[in-house]
Amino acid sequence: MLPEQTDVLVVGAGPTGLAVAVTLAAHGVRATVVDGLAEPPVTSRAAVVHAGTLEVLDRIGVSAPLAARGLPATRFSVRDRDRVLVTVPFDRLPSRYPYALLVSQAETEAVLAERLTALGGRVLRPYRLTGLDLDAAGATARFAGGETVRARWVVGADGMHSAVRDLAGIDFGGPADDPGESFLLADVRVDSDLPRDQVSLFLGRQGPLVWAPLPDGTVRLVATVPDAPREPRARHFQALLDERGPARRPDRVTELLWGSRFRIHHRIAGTYRSGPVLLAGDAAHVHSPAGGQGMNLGLRDAVALGDTLAAVLAGRPDQLLDGYAAARRPLAEEVVGFADRLTRLATVPPAVRPLRNLLFRVVAGLPPVRRKIAVRLAGFEPDRAVIRR
Ligand SMILES: Cc1cc2nc3c(=O)[nH]c(=O)nc-3n(C[C@H](O)[C@H](O)[C@H](O)COP(=O)(O)OP(=O)(O)OC[C@H]3O[C@@H](n4cnc5c(N)ncnc54)[C@H](O)[C@@H]3O)c2cc1C
């Protein structure tokens, strides 16, 4: 049952909301966490947790159990069909987790939920937020079943279509008439010669194709496409592999386990804080999944916000929360810029491709550049911490 009042109401129990709640619980703050769904989703969705994120999650006791459920990829290779343009090593990252961890989002959420339970918290379901009255001392949240909760702080971790963001009147940018970039993704069984210790990114003329091994022996494929079919089938992914993947020994899709399509704009909320309302994760930023950064950025937002909220509840000035907003928003801008550059690199005209490949091999072949790409992909953020432990 919902409490009448709470210090922190976290709306949304996806990876971001769960990580905010775990961080607060680790500081001894019991947040009220609600989700509109009766059960957590079981689909795989975001499939990679990077080293920079694992370092941050380590502080809340989540990385070791998560690593035990995933598959470590020690390298990331950029390819043009059969040609490897550059191999980025993760195994030399300055981290206890020198790899990209391939793991289904459902597992990531399960590990976070277990950690929350271990710290004495839980998610209250199904409670869908429908109204928010804001005032100087906090907010009154209204739910679809008629319940209300009075909260000092409200965290909008309710995803791309965030009700918290809309009810607080925070702008989400992006052109209203542009349908956004179109993606196809799937988990498939595939007969392939590609190495399973690395994530491969093919810079296909028609757009990028990501090939990532998953722990259960399947492979995650993600590609930009001009127009995605309503019901993706194995043949659509076979066509993508034939068009963009290895040419000498082509991959063969033997089974489609799960496929999906979506369109996405690159959008960032006008602000991450408006009075008692704070945004994190997809509620604050959405962008292409091509660089595998979306959920990672949200998880790192979440720990930063949990730390900051706990400090404010312990008596530090609430302007610290403006610091959270000011520090995190530029990081989303960087990730959006990175995803844009990746797509532009993939889709250069055919005449320019040999030059692009040559430049890529020369520039990205330099060890300092390779290290920089590894650090960037891994999500190690510049130290803009508002709060220190
Ligand atoms: C099909 C698919 C594939 C994806 N693939 C990738 C990928 O390969 N790589 C990648 O980085 N990202 C991927 N993503 C995006 C990734 O899943 C998100 O970045 C991530 O889930 C964001 O986490 P979040 O907790 O911020 O939001 P969400 O996971 O969206 O969680 C929001 C939660 O809020 C709840 N909620 C919403 N509205 C309300 C309300 N009014 N009241 C109460 N609760 C509410 C929802 O039920 C949900 O549980 C994919 C997403 C989808 C849908």
UniProtKB/TrEMBL annotation:
Keywords: FAD, Flavoprotein. It comes from the Bacteria. The keyword Flavoprotein applies. Its cofactor is FAD. It holds the Pfam family FAD_binding_3. Residues 5-338 form the FAD-binding domain. GO terms for molecular function: FAD binding; oxidoreductase activity, acting on paired donors, with incorporation or reduction of molecular oxygen, NAD(P)H as one donor, and incorporation of one atom of oxygen. This is 2-polyprenyl-6-methoxyphenol hydroxylase.
